[in-house]
Amino acid sequence: MLTVIAMLSCKNADAATLLSALDNLQKLSRKEVGCLRYELAVKNNDTQTDYIVTEQWATNE
After folding, report:
1. pTM of the prediction?
2. Per-residue pLDDT tens for 2-30?
3. For the purposes of burial, counting CB atoms within 10 Å of the CB of 19, is it exposed (0-12), middle (13-18) or buried (19 or more)?
């Protein structure tokens, strides 16, 4: 099993663009063979938005 945790940050002005790309990636990844879990968490403050992507795959391949 492979677990991937990615943390991304952007200025709030770019948050909608990055969220759209991450949502699309989430939908596509969940369709892939071996994808057990793909979750996206979002946290923002006055100046930036942070994203945490957690993926879990059946194998390292």
Report:
1. 0.84
2. 999 999 999 999 999 999 999 999 999 99
3. middle
